[in-house]
Known about the structure:
Layout (H helix, E strand, L loop, with lengths): L3 H23 L4 E5 L8 E5 L3 E6 L4 E5 L8 H27 L9 H38 L10 E2 L1 H23 L2 H8 L10 H14 L1
Antiparallel strand pairs: 1-2, 1-5, 2-3, 3-4
Amino acid sequence: MASASLQFFAFILALFGVFGDIAATLLPNWKVNADVGSNIITAITQMQGLWMDCTWYSTGMFSCTLKYSILSLPVYIQAARTTMVLSCILSAFGICITTVGMKCTKLGGDTDSKNHACFAGGVCFILAGIFELVPTCWYTREIISNFLDQTIPESSKHEPGGAVYTGFISAGFLLIAGVIFSSSCFTRQQGAWIYPPKQHHFPSTEQESNAGYSLKDYV
């Protein structure tokens, strides 16, 4: 089983990943468009997220509009909503399960039960990281393709916002934590192969009897 310090480090990474996952899901700045206009006083920043669109003015005022209609949204936004919510649920389950299976806690019973709990929690973290990484990459691809499209006017082009970068970082944290937790239950089994138990050989009674018989023949 992995050391308690390594598991605690993975648990801290998982916590950062969960918080980043939730923040990326709720933040409205998945893509940002800055329109300066003729005067800096009229500058506005338009932000679009999975659940709402916000407009921030240079005067400090801002307004947000919720996206009520699901069917009117593009496919990549609908897929991002579903997978990000699943990622949040799986990462929350992973936190609960690994809390029981960590070596530094007194929960979970014997060593084998803790190993199984760590493996299950690690799988939850890995799945949560994949579910978060896929929509983030897909969303980024759509932003870049629209930005490079010459037929789209400059005022309608966007750039990746802070929520996208938060999603990438938190997905990496979840994947690293999941690999550490899922591999911790195999460390003990690998040690048995590297250091096999010593075998003690004792002479059999049959060999002793044969040896005594041959000595009698020579006498």
